Amino acid sequence: MANSMREHREKMLAIKAQKQAQSPDPRLRKKAVIMGIDPGALEGDQTIASTLSSPTANIELRLFNHMNQLKETKSTQEKIAKKKEWLPEYLGYIDGCLAVSPSAQNTTLVTLMVWAVDAGEYELAVRIAEYAILNDMVMPEGHARGIAEFVTEQCAIDFCDDTDLATAHAELIKKIIELGVGEQMVDQARAKIFRALGDALKDAQPIEAQNAYKNALRLDSKVGCKKDLIALEKLLMKQTTESSPDATVGSQADTSTAQTVDASVPASTDSNVIADQSTTAIDSTVSTE
Predict the structure, then answer these.
(1) pLDDT of 19-57, one tens digit each?
(2) Which of 75, 125, 156, 160 could be joined to 117 by an S-S link, Cβ 3.0–4.6 Å?
(3) What is the full DSSP assignment across 40-83?
(4) What is the dihedral of CA 106, 109, 112, 113, to 10 degrees?
(5) What is the largest distance, in Å, between two alpha-carbon atoms of the chain?
């Protein structure tokens, strides 16, 4: 039953697409001009029909139909669910595009990047973003943010909302930070991705997480990780204290006062070295601005 309904739906979409290809729909004409076709030229309609039969044009037409369905959907969650459902249909096209460089502006590809972020396919989104930035592409019409800023902020929002998700994508978060180096974006967006990195590393790599939190707060004092930074600093201080040789007890307590004083000198020196190393690590943060 489900298969028959799907087949019927695909048949109806094919009929609709065929009618659109034959109609003087101004949106379709505009699409043809973008693709490099002059509808007003001699045999313009035949050129449009021929071009629309190419594999790339079929993908663009499929996306055109899907976008229309999204416009008719009011629920944000339903829109996300549809993007997750449809995105696999475009993976072959995406791989084909990414295999060819340099490339001109490809709005279809960048639109699919937006879908990938919305669908939670973050690795795919970053792959497309890297390619798009390398080829000087821009976001589709209606988007105020650039490619790097969009991917950085949208991914960061999801990661900041889910620490487990951030932890699972720690290496990808680092790549997103690198993606934004030299790209225009507001400080708040960059601060969010640094906070996400801090969340991702705070258990396994606390010093690196501390650096990330400090970078986040330097960019935006309201990014929301002050308490996390304070807790992390207390933890690191406790670990430093516990690892200090000054904490040694036992048989040394029976030694003479002079021996105890002499023994305390190198221990104190070692403690300073540890403190200096900790301070050096903390102060070694480098802002990506």
Answers:
(1) 655 554 444 444 444 444 344 444 444 444 444 456 788
(2) 125
(3) TSTTHHHHHHHHTTSHHHHHHHHHHHHHHHHHT---HHHHHHHH
(4) -90
(5) 107
SS3 of the chain: helix, strand, coil, percent, to 5: 75, 0, 25
What's phi and psi for 228, nearest 5 deg? Answer: -65, -40
CB 28 within 8 A of CB 20: yes
Mean pLDDT of 241-253: 58
Average pLDDT, rounded, for the chain: 80
Q: What are phi and psi of 120, to 5 degrees?
A: 80, 15
Asked whether the beta carbons of 198 and 225 are under 8 A apart, the reply is yes
Only one residue has tokens 């023994």, namely 263
pTM for the whole thing? 0.69
And the tokens for 199? 């969340």
Alpha-carbon distances, residue 122 vs 39, 70, 145, 180, 269 (angstroms): 38, 21, 18, 15, 48
Q: Does 177 have pLDDT greater than 60?
A: yes
20, two tokens: 């659109």
* CA-CA-CA-CA dihedral for 96, 32, 49, 73, to nearest 10: 80
Contact residues for 156 (Cβ-Cβ < 8 A; gap 6+):
176, 189, 192, 193, 195, 196
Cα separation, 39 vs 30, in Å, equals 9
Task: Judge whether 90 and 59 are in contact, CB under 8 Å.
Answer: yes
DSSP category for residue 251: G
